[in-house]
Structure formats: C-alpha cells, structure tokens
Specification:
Number of domains: 2
Structural class: alpha+beta
Radius of gyration: 24 Å
CATH architecture of the largest domain: Orthogonal Bundle
Strand content: 15-25%
CATH class of the largest domain: Mainly Alpha
Shape: elongated
Distance between the termini: 58 Å
Strand order of the largest sheet: 6-3-8-7
Low-confidence stretches: 106-116
Order of helices and strands: HHHHHHHHHEEHHHEEEEEEEHH
Mean pLDDT: 90
Helix content: 25-40%
CATH superfamily of the largest domain: Hypothetical protein, domain 2
Bound molecules: iron/sulfur cluster
Length: 371
C-alpha cells in the first residue's frame, strides 16, 4: 500500500479514534503491555461495547501482572463471568503466573516479594509460547506497547484485505496461490502495512476501520481513507468479499450427568471429557438420542452404583459448540452419602447453591437449570 494511502489512514484514525478505556489520549504514546494483552484477549469474539466495563473492573482489581498472578482461578472467573470462552481467563491466569516466575521475562525477584517487577516478554517467539497468546495478540502487544514493526491479523483486517485486494478466499482456506498458502498471503499484506515505524498506528487504525467503516454488512466506503486503493470498491462488488465461511455442522447427541450427594453437592470433573477439556465441567458422553433408562455405565467411573438412590431424566436441551450442534439429555443422579472430604484433583464437589457461579460455561448452566 503506498505511503499516501497510509498517511490518509493515520489522519483518519487521529480524527475518528473512539475513546476507549484501554486507549491513551496520545495515540502515539506506547501503551502498557499488560493492558494491551488483557483488552485484546477480552475483545476476541466479544464486542467493544461489552468489553469496556469488564476491562475497567478488571484493571481496578488486577492492575498489573503481579496482582493477577496472586489471584485464584475462582476470582478471575468472577471478573470474567459473562464474557464467555472461559479458557481465555484460565490462560490469562496461567500466563501471569509464568511471567511472574520467569526471570528471563524481566521478572526480578528481590529480597521482598513486594519488589517483584513482572513484564510481558518483548519478542514474538516468547509471547507465542505463553498459554492463550497467539499470533494476533503477540502482534498487538509488540506493536501497540513496544512499538515494534509487528503485524496483526484479526477478523477486521481479514475483511479489509479481502476487499482491498479482492481476495476470494479466507486465511483458513486450504488453497495455494503462486505457491503461497491463503494464510501466508493475508499475513504478508498485514506485514507490509506493519513495516513502518508507525506500525502501532496502522494496526490500530485498521482494527478501528474494520469495526466502524469497513463493516461486515454495508461498508461505508464514502468515509473510507483506503477507498482509492480498494479493488472491491472500484469494481462495485464489496458485498462479494470476503467470501462466506463454509460451515460444516456435526450433530452430537449426548448425556450430561448431574451427580448430587446427600449433602447437596454436585460433582464437577476436569479433563477426560469431550468438551471443555481445560475446565471443570459436568460429566458427559456421547449416547444415542434419549437413551436414558437407568444408571449409565459411564457414571460408574465417578460413583459406586450401590450408593445411588435415584436416577431421573430431568430434560433435554440444545446447544452449539464450535461445529457441534448438540442435543443433550440430562440425568440427575442422587446419592445416599455425603460428598467425600477429599477427592482426586480432577474431581470437585461443588455446593448446589454455588454451582451456577462455579460452572463457567452455558452448557453446564443449561443442564443445571433443568433440576
Ligand atoms: S473502500 Fe469500502 S470496501 Fe474498500 S476498504 Fe474501504 S470501506 Fe472497505
């Protein structure tokens, strides 16, 4: 993209940048890497308008990496509740702990724990090695906080590049053009824009442009600083780009087990499940539709069949996870004994009254709502 267009993009951004709690008034000032990381992670799959308040509350409670690393998973989930995709919150906490414990990331353990200074790594390789930080987030931290010439590529930029260069494929498509994969082609355009001392502003301006002007439906081309370089605009076919995603849906019929002890605690399991592998969830397994008579054999992995007082099919719900269109039966299994004081680390007994706070995904919440 030529320099005149990039200059126009920067000027447009300076005039139109929305005031956001993670953005500084001086758009040329380097931002705090921790704040960039948190805001960009929250913004993945969540609208700016929703993230604003969450970000402000989060930064009040966890103002830096050290404060975050000292928090419990339960508290972090509390501040994340409602944003969905809880693996993001879990990974943020894991990463904060790693950064605080790793000397090479600039953490300096002094004699007093209070003197610990923890910083985000400053290279793509180190950042991408941390849980939950992918190519996009690493690029955002490096460019916005450290002013490095690093590229980003998110849904907004994909849409803009697809229209600017009339690309009739998505980065995830398994195609080759001139020996390059679809992903390489998109990333090359992103790198070209970031190959400038103003990479931080080009990246952020494109995100803003995608959100407010080059929108999914009805792009506002008359207000666009890139109009002179846009192939889709020149050919009057912006609606054809980017091409629609091909969705392959898979049906999944399953059973969810809500196992409740005599003292009203619900069994949560970690790992070994089809969905939510990295968080506590209700036990579940694939089963034929409405195959719900009696105690299923799978329940005996967690409880002794002799302790069961009743098994009741309490209902059915529909749910979608990624490509899975789910149809789930819920079995409520009551035990005659109290929950054990000590269980294996992958099992946890949660008070029924606290279960809706503990389970951080709507799959479990929908199951519990049927009790
Ligand atoms: S001219 Fe229109 S389609 Fe092209 S980048 Fe700008 S807003 Fe998007």
């Amino acid at each position: 993209m030529d320099n005149a267009i990039l200059k126009r993009l920067r000027e447009w951004f300076k005039k139109n940048a929305a005031e956001l709690p993670w953005r500084l008034a001086d758009l040329d000032a380097p931002r705090d890497a921790y704040a960039v990381w948190i805001s960009e992670t929250m913004l993945q799959q969540t609208q700016v308008s929703t993230v604003r308040d969450y970000f402000v509350r989060w930064m009040k409670r966890f103002p830096d990496i050290k404060a975050l690393a000292a928090a419990t998973e339960e508290e972090v989930f509390k501040y994340w509740q409602g944003l969905g995709y809880y693996s993001r919150a879990r990974n943020i906490l894991k990463t904060a702990k790693i950064i605080c414990q790793t000397e090479m990331y600039g953490s300096r353990r002094q004699r007093l724990q209070d003197d610990l200074v923890a910083r985000m790594p400053q290279t793509r390789k180190e950042l991408e090695a941390l849980p939950g930080i992918g190519a996009y987030t690493a690029g955002a931290i490096l460019s916005l906080a450290y002013h490095q010439r690093e590229a980003i590529l998110d849904g907004n930029l994909v849409r803009i590049f697809s229209r600017l260069y009339a690309l009739d494929f998505l980065p995830t498509d398994k195609i080759k053009r001139d020996g390059k994969s679809a992903s390489e082609i998109y990333w090359n355009y992103a790198r070209e824009i970031a190959d400038s001392p103003k990479a931080y502003m080009h990246n952020e301006a494109l995100m803003e442009l995608g959100r407010t002007v080059c929108k999914i439906k009805n792009p506002d081309c008359e207000k666009c600083p890139l109009q002179g370089a846009c192939k889709a605009f020149a050919e009057k076919c912006t609606a054809n780009f980017p091409p629609a995603k091909k969705h392959i849906q898979k049906d999944w019929h399953g059973t969810v087990l809500v196992i409740e002890s005599a003292d009203h605690k619900i069994l949560a399991v970690h790992g070994g499940q089809k969905f939510f592998k990295n968080q506590f969830t209700l036990p579940h397994f694939e089963s034929p539709r409405h195959a719900t008579a009696g105690l299923p054999a799978q329940a005996e992995a967690y409880i002794d069949a002799d302790l069961v007082t009743s098994v009741q099919h309490v209902g059915n719900f529909k749910h979608n996870i990624t490509v899975h269109k789910m149809d789930c039966d819920v079995l409520h299994i009551c035990l005659k004994t109290k929950a054990p004081q000590h269980s294996a680390p992958e099992l946890r007994w949660v008070k029924r009254s606290e279960a809706s706070d503990f389970f951080a995904n709507s799959f479990c919440l929908k199951s519990l709502a049927l009790l």
